[in-house]
Amino acid sequence: MTLKLQNRVAVVTGASSGIGRAIALVLAKEGASVVCSDIRKSANADGYEPDLDIDTDDLIVQRGGAAQFVPCNVTKSKEVQALVVAAVEKFGRLDVMVNNAGVAFDFATVVEEREEDFDTTMAVNVKGVWLGCKYAIEQFMKQEPIKMTNGGEVRGRVVNMASMAGLVGLAKEPAYCASKAAVVGLTKEIAVDFAEQRINVNAICPGFLATSMVRSALEDEAIRKWLHGLTPWPRLGTVDDVAKAALFLASDDAEWMTGSMLTLDGGFVAR
């Protein structure tokens, strides 16, 4: 059985925990050599995923895959550029860039939200994606395209992490909604610019997921019931739901898909 990402190289930002960890693991399972990047190597201790005591890159290697950890603050241009260079130096090229690193702060209206929280949210969630696209595509343009399973060619693929918060307004999340809406617009624009060069650029828009970022909310019985009530499908999402979508967008199955927002929200925005 042929693996979907055999002989491909991927970078995943925010790979130590949550969505990024799940994506890195599934890409490696399908044959990709994965550069796992984050501010810190270890996972958040309050996450829901198993094997939290084992770092993502080490877990990939334990399972027979190829991986390397490279620390990176995605708001710093030189660090993101160095991340892409490290991937190429280690594995020879770059085929998939997953711009997943993101932050969110406590619920607040625009009146209550702190300016420094807004600045940090925009820096990580928007500038971090912008820099990841910038340096990944710069590398894609330098390297020769590779053959896909259908005989066509591709130079590279970008998967950005947006959110349903970039498609609709969520109460008391002004900075987060603004940042994810920016990712939606940025993804569409870059997809248009580089379609002719056979570079796919898409984004995933997850709904409510069980991750360490929202654990405090999910442990509140009233909030948990409220979130379930907002989501038509009879469960909340998991990081594995998002990882499977990222695998699709990173694979040759998504060849003719670019500038798209893949919504995984249990029907939230369809209401």
Task: Describe this protein's structure.
This protein is α/β, with parallel strands linked by helices and 271 residues long. Helices cover 40% and strands 15% of the residues. It has eight helices and nine strands. It has helices at residues 18-29, 56-62, 77-91, 115-142, 174-194, 215-218, 221-230, 239-250; strands at residues 9-13, 33-38, 67-71, 96-99, 146-147, 153-154, 156-161, 199-206, 261-264. The strands form two sheets. It has a seven-stranded parallel sheet, sandwiched between helices. A two-stranded antiparallel sheet has the order 5-6. α1 (18-29) runs parallel beside α2 and α1 (18-29) crosses α8 (239-250). The longest helix has 28 residues, at 115-142. The N and C termini lie far apart (40 Å).
Kindly list the characteristics that best describe this protein.
single chain, 271 residues, alpha/beta, Rossmann fold, 7-stranded parallel sheet, two-stranded antiparallel sheet
Give the name of the CATH architecture.
3-Layer(aba) Sandwich
Average of the residue pLDDT scores: 94
CATH homologous superfamily caption = NAD(P)-binding Rossmann-like Domain
Shape: globular
Strand-residue fraction?
Answer: 15-25%
Overall tally of structural domains = 1
H/I helix tally: 8
Keywords: Oxidoreductase
Organism: Paraburkholderia madseniana
Enzyme class: oxidoreductase
InterPro entries: NAD(P)-bd_dom_sf, Sc_DH/Rdtase_CS, SDR_fam
